[in-house]
Design a protein that fits this description.
With 226 residues, the chain is of the alpha/beta class. It is built from nine helices and nine strands. It has a seven-stranded mixed sheet with strand order 2-1-5-4-3-8-9. A two-stranded parallel ribbon has the order 6-7. α3 links the parallel β4 and β5 (100-102). This is Peroxiredoxin.
């Protein structure tokens, strides 16, 4: 099967491609086409579970599952983590009603047009390349979780320690090939057409390491005819 590869992040009005992945929280496969013609679905495409920011975004998305289901909208979380590692994580960190899938090859991210950002010494070409000076000048502000605004590397290390998250060989492999993978969330209608999205690509990376406000997601869900 030929792989889909969008040249840019999908936008409202674009038809989402089909992607077939290994399910984490149940047996078998899960595909975008499972929802097409059935129900709208919120698709969250995240980095591996090694990313503490993504772990928090996944939990935030899971918290909206019930409210979305009341509106007739399903949810699918995709992580760039090998299946057995992902199953082990969610076994010890269960999220009620979470439907998750494993995509260590990042096929879904390419299909939805999310770039794998390259870190460079001094070259910036957003959203393909970013210099380490630019990255280290960013400040992550997470009151209640971080003692003060921190650069992404320091914040990641602090959050991993706070979570007690230990990096495994599987995680190291994902970091080596997809440390710069940009992420996003896409709300598809029952025909598989994007009606709303939030990605790290937007606004020259202003949304990096953060996620949409729950009210923004629910507003988009309310505005979409089910």
């Amino acid at each position: 099967m030929q792989e889909n590869h969008a040249a840019r992040p999908l936008q409202p009005g674009d038809r989402a491609p089909n992607v077939v992945l290994d399910a984490i929280t149940r047996q078998g496969k899960v595909a975008i086409d499972d929802f097409r013609g059935q129900k709208p679905v919120l698709i969250g495409l995240f980095r591996g579970l090694h990313c503490p920011f993504c772990r928090r975004q996944i939990a935030a998305m899971a918290e909206l599952t019930g409210a979305l289901q009341e509106k007739g909208i399903d949810s699918l979380t995709v992580v760039n983590t090998p299946i057995e590692r992902a199953r082990l994580y969610f076994r010890y960190h269960p999220l009620p009603n979470l439907l998750a899938a494993s995509d260590p090859e990042r096929a879904s991210h390419r299909a939805f047009g999310l770039p794998n950002l390259q870190f460079t010494e001094d070259e910036n070409e957003w959203p393909r390349k970013v210099s380490m000076n630019t990255v280290m000048s960013m400040r992550i502000d997470m009151p209640g979780e971080l003692p003060a605004p921190m650069d992404p590397m320091a914040a990641s290390e602090f959050l991993d320690k706070a979570d007690g998250y230990e990096i495994t060989e599987d995680d190291k492999q994902m970091i080596a090939t997809g440390h710069g993978q940009l992420v996003g969330e896409f709300l598809l209608d029952r025909d598989g057409v994007v009606r709303w999205c939030f990605t790290e690509v937007e606004e020259d990376g202003r949304h990096m390491f953060g996620g949409p406000a729950p009210r923004e997601v629910m507003s988009a869900a309310s505005n979409m005819a089910v």
